Automatic annotation (TrEMBL):
Its cofactor is Zn(2+). This is N-acyl homoserine lactonase family protein. The lineage of its organism: Bacteria, Pseudomonadati, Pseudomonadota, Alphaproteobacteria, Caulobacterales. The keyword Endoplasmic reticulum does not apply. Residues 30-236 form the Metallo-beta-lactamase domain. SUPFAM superfamilies: Metallo-hydrolase/oxidoreductase (SSF56281). Keywords: Hydrolase, Metal-binding, Zinc. Belongs to the metallo-beta-lactamase superfamily. InterPro entries: MBL_superfamily_lactonases (IPR051013), Metallo-B-lactamas (IPR001279), RibonucZ/Hydroxyglut_hydro (IPR036866).
Length: 252
């Protein structure tokens, strides 16, 4: 079986445009996650929103609204339903690779009971430290659920064959990571929140509350890996996702 990559959308995040480096008082952007079918098992890269976010009175949604943000999540947009549409049992997912521990990237972990979390060691350390977790908005409610955790340090070959490579891309959070996936028809670099959208990749106008110099270095390193057949997919770019899905099937 060739390596296959699928892109899924776990509904939307709503925010002032400036918070995402976008024009407009209010913007709505996709909350994507990715499914990788490999001969050695299924991996996901990020896992979207927690299903409790469907409820308007969810405590974290109330916190978001107090900061002029919000999310929307429909029953058909949960991690479980997206996997089921791909004929994948959520209980069979082997790896949950987390770009970082924010609520919209780690929220669906509770739907993947048997997955091993794969995360940068410095990100896990930040999430386990009360002060850093508060500073970087890393709520343990979403990721500290008793899963097995594989902490890696820097670049990491997930399956040992070069097809799926974790790439450190620090700056958005202390241990943010991105992912490169190689298929027969082309390569993908999934930046996650190392860069929200194509415009930011061009302007380098990162929101002020992140480590801009570190994000610039990380993005330079990611873009330097591009080849002629590489597609760079940014973290929350509505232009790349169109109606709902950028990748509905594999290229390889």
């Amino acid at each position: 079986m060739a390596v296959k990559l699928f892109g899924c959308v776990c509904d939307q995040f709503h925010s002032p445009g400036a918070g995402l480096g976008m024009a407009g008082d209010r913007v709505s952007v996709p909350v994507p996650f990715y499914v990788i079918e490999h001969p050695s098992g299924v991996a996901v890269f990020d896992c979207g929103l927690h299903a409790d976010m469907m409820q308007a009175d969810d405590p974290y949604r109330r916190r978001l609204r107090s900061q002029e943000m919000d999310v929307s999540l429909a029953p058909e947009e949960t991690v479980t339903r997206s996997l089921e549409r791909l004929d994948i049992d959520p209980a069979a997912v082997r790896f949950a690779v987390l770009s970082h521990l924010h609520f919209d990237h780690a929220g669906g972990l509770n739907e993947l009971p048997n997955a091993t979390i794969v995360v940068q060691a410095r990100e896990w350390a930040a999430g386990s430290d009360d002060e850093l977790a508060a500073r970087y908005f890393l709520p343990r409610r979403f990721f500290d659920l008793g899963h097995q955790v594989r902490q890696v340090d820097g670049e990491h070959d997930l399956f040992g064959d070069g097809s799926v490579t974790l790439l450190p891309s620090y700056g958005h959070t202390p241990g943010h990571q991105s992912l490169q996936v190689r298929t027969e028809a082309g390569d993908y670099i999934l930046t996650a929140d190392a860069c929200y959208n194509c415009r930011t990749a061009e302007t380098r106008e990162f929101p002020a509350h992140f480590d801009g110099p570190a994000m610039n270095r990380s993005l330079d390193a990611l873009l330097a890996r591009r080849g002629p057949d590489t597609l760079v997919i940014y973290g929350h770019d509505p232009d790349q996702w169109g109606e709902r899905a950028l990748l509905s099937s594999s290229r390889g």
